[in-house]
Amino acid sequence: MTARWEWRTFGEGFGAAEATLAQLPPDRVHESDELYLLSEASDASVKVRDALMDVKRLERVNDDGLEQWRPVLKAPFPLAAQDLRFVLDTLQTPAPVLDRAAYALPDVASLTRTATIHKHRAHYHVDGCMAELSELSAGAASTRTLAIEGEDPQQVIAAVRRLGLAEHPNVSVTRGIKALLGIGGRRYGVIDVGTNSVKLHVAERAADGTWRALADRGEVTRLGEGLDGGGRLAAEPVARTVAAIEAMVAEARELGAEEIIAVGTAGLRIAPNAAELTGPVQDRTGVEIEIIPGEEEARMAFVAATAGLRRATGDLVVFDSGGGSSQFTLGDGRQIVEQFSLNLGAARVTERFGLDQAVSAEIVTAARSAIARELDRLGGRPVPGAVVGMGGTVTNLAAIKHSLAPYDPEIVQGTVLYRDEIEQQIERLRHRSAERRASIVGLQPNRAPVILAGACIVATVLDVLRAGALTVSDRALRHGLLHVRFGA
Predict the structure, then answer these.
(1) Which of 178, 245, 336, 402 is the right S-S partner for 183, CB 3.0 to 4.6 Å?
(2) How crowded is the C-beta side of 274, counted as CA atoms within 13 Å?
(3) What is the Cα–Cα distance from 272 to 204, expressed in whole angstroms?
(4) At residue 314, does pLDDT exceed 70?
(5) Are 91 and 113 in contact (CB under 8 A)?
(6) What contacts 205, CB < 8 A, 6 or more positions away?
(7) Helix axes 361-374, 419-430, angle to 10 degrees
(8) Is the Cα torsion angle 304, 305, 306, 311 positive or negative in sign?
């Protein structure tokens, strides 16, 4: 049976794509009623159509996000016992003892959840591919879906892009139906162990692939405190960080996370005694901290930025400046062209130049000159079409701009920070000690010691890129990890 590549999305309307199809004569328009067999454990397409059991299985997903679906069963009723066992295995549903040679449709339907879906479908041909615009209904609930499919993945993705659908999520028909019926929803947790702070994100993934955040918070533990001086993690910062991680794991489990991943970044990459943190965490929580390379950290930041900001298209620079390192990813909004990590972070710059205190303009200038030298690899490029910044520094600068008390991620997400605004914040911050900065509305008090250094890094990045502004992404490493590790 021939496998086909598919891109399908759900929604009330499809803009330019729908307008394009409206100008084409449909190959055919028809209506049908189909019985879907559903389970929370599987997204396979299992349905009864034209009195046949029809099963399709996902073979693979390519780099463009297209899904390849292969028909694996078409069988009449009564259904042979071996075919029924295959259906239940595909749905990942426990099978009862099958003591008959064949089973009628009511017997099969009684073994799993079912839904009768009425479909009104219009079929078209677009750029050598099949296009299907459908209205699906189950009782009072209804939705619309547009699919592009074909045997050649290059033709399919070309048609998707020409129709302007590339930024829509690719959602299989079974996931769309389960979302329509409110079936499913799996919860996951991600913990990002950084040099300056530990961050937790717990979210629920619906059947249609969309996410609902259940918890998203950070705690400044300053794991890297003193790291530059001695090259090793100190006992007190390790103890603070282990305690924070332990509490976050407990919180994620209380929220029903079925799987929790934890990753370590720059501080754990460079510390020879990282096991003094990772060992106790695994012993106390059962969660293993995966220390990821800087390039992977940069890639996850790019995924988070491009998934979370619709405006993030065209030539794009995404950077995530943390406590111990900064990650840079360059791309075109859809794919990565270059990525690298630099050992340049707010905690390290703070310790080197004493920026947790009120300082002179000359010290700030010296710090920024040193930062610029560290950013040499970033220089000499064409001015990017867009710059996206993420991480604690840029989100705090955005919160200060909006005077947010308490922090509101929905306001921060998409905020534009202009270079002159950042310069004004640097000037304001350099006149204050960490204690006095803590009173600034919008600034998280625990970030007060490192915010000046972070702002200097952000401003210098814009200087080197010759960019006048950046867009703030509240979504960062943990969101990218969630999307990549649990989104498929």
Answers:
(1) 178
(2) 18
(3) 36
(4) no
(5) no
(6) 185, 186, 187, 188, 211, 486, 487
(7) 130
(8) positive
Tokens representing residue 129 in the block = 């591919």
Residue 373 burial (CB < 10 Å; 0-12/13-18/19+)? exposed
- pLDDT digit string, tens, across residues 387-405: 999 888 999 999 999 999 8
| Tokens of residue 459, six digits | 């401003």
- The pTM of this model reads 0.57
Enumerate domains of the chain plus CATH numbers.
4-181 (2.40.320.10), 186-291 (3.30.420.40), 295-486 (3.30.420.150)
Tokens of 42: 């599987």
- Cα separation, 87 vs 47, whole angstroms: 10
Q: From the CA atom positions of the chain, what is the Rg in Å?
A: 26
Structure tokens given for 137: 């209904």
* Distance of alpha carbon 415 from alpha carbon 404, whole angstroms: 13
Nearest CA among 200, 346, 190, 357 for reference residue 261: 190
- Name, in order, each residue with C-beta under 8 angstroms of 184's C-beta and a sequence gap of 6 or more: 40, 175, 178, 206, 207
Do the Cβ atoms of 171 and 155 come closer than 8 Å? no
Place of tokens 């064949």: 102
pLDDT given for residue 333 in this prediction: 61
222-254 burial string, b = 16+ CB within 10 Å, else e? Answer: bbbbebbeeeebbeebbebbbebbeebbebbbe
Residue (of 150, 151, 94, 89) closest to 124 by Cα position: 150
